[in-house]
Amino acid sequence: MLTSKIYLSDIKFNIAFFQLKEYKVIGRMRPTEKDKKPPLYQMRIFAPDKPTAVSRYWYFSSQLKKMKKTRGEILLCQEIHEKRPTKIKNIGIWLRYDSRSGTHNMYKEYRDLSVAGAVTQCYRDMGARHRARTGSIQIIRCEVIPASKCRRPYIKQYHDSKIRFPLPHRVSKRLHHPRFTTEVERSVKLCLINVVHSVNIHLTGLTRDMVLAYHVHKNGHKTPIITKKRIGGSIAASFKEQFYLKRKLAMALKNKVASHYVGVSKEMARGLLPGWLKGTLYRNGIGKFRFGPDEAVHLFDGMAVLHQYNIKDGQVSYRNRLLDSDTYRRNKAANRIVVSEFGVVAHPDPCKSLFTRYFSYFFGFGKQTDNDCVNVMLLGDQLYALTETPRMNQIDPVTLDRVNKENLSKYVAVHLSTAHPLVEPDGTTYNIGTHASRHSSYKIIKIPPPQAGDNNPVRSAVLVGSIPCQWPLTPCYSHSFGMTPNYIIFVEQPMACNLFELATGHWTRKSLLDSLHYYDSYKTKLHVLDKSTGSLVDIQFVANAFCVFHHINAYEEDDQIVVDAAVYEDASIFKCFTLKNIRDNGPISQSRFKRFVLPLNAHEATTATALDDGTVYCVPECISDAYIELPRIHYEKYNGQKYRYVYGICTENIQFDKLVKLDILTKTKTLWGEDGYFAGEPVFVPDPEGTEEDDGIILSPMIRTKDDLQSFLLVLDAKTFTEIARAQVPADINIPMSFHGIFANI
Question: How is the cofactor bound (predicted)?
């Protein structure tokens, strides 16, 4: 075993904003037939978190032992804790650093509770006193030293038992204004709100002559005031009366909101469900776009709403609930949008201190959104809500409450991840994340099948491959990817994010949407990565510029990879889903079903490709003239396999009022639609006794677009694409639109 102490000799982050920790990392080369017991290599590394420690381990391993992470594995990565974390220690540090004039040796002493804390002080001290960059500092040795061996006067002065520190003189100043008053001053401004008519009276005890007002202080802060009387045109109420009335009003409004998010049981309004159909359709979407004066800009900015259609004994019950994410809580507490989303830039959080708000505004430091409004997935028997950041929320499959939260970036070094992970038959889950840095790349993430009793399968995530970004500071936008039994297919489209614009977005007021740019003069690259080795194939595939949100399927046939996707000719679709365009019934881009054939043997390229300097130029085939989005297939059996049928929504207009079934073999389409309804993503549920690919049913939520209609869950025969049943929701229940979902029997 090789043991070496490495102390961050090549740091890629700003040490001023991180507290370092000490980690012990053990790794090795993967065992092979030639070397069944490769040697272990151990390093003790200072880093802010585990992913950074693992990244540094592979960097030093490649430099010292020529061992790359694609051929190696991490056996252990754990934080080294102090044995006596409450005792202040004298810590000596021997280091070497490079300045403009040469290389210098230096000895430093610090007092701290831990060695990691002393190293953090050292890096900050070197940067402040010597202008030393973190990458130019190499720590040779650090150890705890007794007081008798300390050399530096600024450390030895603390060893004097008679040392004293003067206490500041505290002066208690009288408050200029009392905190509470029973009468409103004449100079107080009141912002009157209408009489509370919409509150549920019998639940709250409030009467219709109650008025809600705000006491506006000189600093702009508003204090709610509720009263039952109007006195001479002014409003007055005792503090005790205000307290209890405010609490009743809060409960009333809570009950009122909750009435839109309760389970509703309803018998089938038309038709009969198949006897074999039993389970739950989980869906994810958006439902709240405004907080106080702030409103969302893009459809993807809405707060997440989870949906549950429970099917049992021929009946359907429906439930939906706002996802109680950290983002929702922060926005609600501030009554503003204080967490940036896809199309909206957050305001500084008024709940934060002035110093924190300053850095949040100018440097954009803060938590990523966990408003998981895009998709849901299963890891074993655990249900997770997903978006395009690594932050996931675990959901109770019965009540739809949040029971836990996870951050994928704690285990793998990614800043973004797609909302469409793919699952192999054995339960292994794959996803692709983006690592944004000076050398941006796309990381292949693998989560092994959850073991029995594993309460946190996400922590088993590992990186199995990496794809370098063709523009290091401008990684592309990715929403999904393709996968076959042996390969990962990643489309690097020329719709890319400018990291500089995104990093300065809080200052320039540019959102992620504003940072995306379409470079139509560049080619689209189709990367193919071998899952077994984690390396790219030798052939580079390119095509004319296009954009894609959703892959349909991919499979291998005759030493070729067939990739199917819903393809857009340009990137205008991103602007089509702004709330303004939707309200104005504006134009929308259409996507078509296109097929790319990637020959793994370039010398046997098909007529649809052209070989030029080791690059294969791909010309896609348009399978159908139908406009299709949110495509679904018989996923359980035909994902990664040759297939025939695709189901989706028809995007001829922005109303999305039709469902479509495409037959790839005959290149025909079948439509189903009903006026006044917005069609949701069709989910295929296979017949357990079926023998053909389309033996099963289609479940799709039909959302009303008129007040005199009722939303319902549509049940279609997948083979004939005709209605066999529908479950109507009561007219007083509003169902927001949803994006994606799964059918499960948890």
Answer: Binds 1 Fe(2+) ion per subunit.
